[in-house]
Amino acid sequence: MIDILEHINAVQREVSRTGETVTVLMRRSYQAEPAEVWHALTDPDRMKRWFMPVSGNLEVGGTFQLEGNAGGEILECEPPKRFKVTFGGPNSLLELRLLPGADASTELELEHSMSEAPAPGGAGALWVGPGWDGGLLGLGLYVTGELPEVTDPAEMANSAEVISYNEQSVRAWIEAIRASGTTTEEDLTSAAKISMSQYAPDAEL
Asked: What pLDDT score was predicted for residue 151?
């Protein structure tokens, strides 16, 4: 059983806006050393266990494609500290940073900036934030050995537990966006309804 609130509260979420660029910043600690977390994040055989299959020329200047999802270009890579890629288009930039934490842990920072956000202002964070929450959840379960040896991430994503987690994630992002003051309440409500229908279709705001 997933402790939904524990995993929701393990993530710090921030939303900011500069002009038309909206940035989502997430932080979470993992009880594993940076080299282990880095390998889980970048090795294709391990990624398909907790995230989704990836293909491509996985080096700087190369491209990647997530199965059934976005692809992009690998812009920068400094193992085992950080990498930066385009994600779904040239105006969508994703950077992951790993920092050593206390007691052989890792502090992970995920920053996703979009200069053409799919919703007005900070409300665009509702299109990507809950999805990244799901990824950070899968990574957390994987590095602590809580995932079964044979796991289908797609099947897990459709489980009742994860859909319940998604609902709480959308609610957490609504509060993060509201606190950021980066969009109107009207635009936030409209985006929240769409996001909830995607990530937790049976939930009501």
From this structure: 66
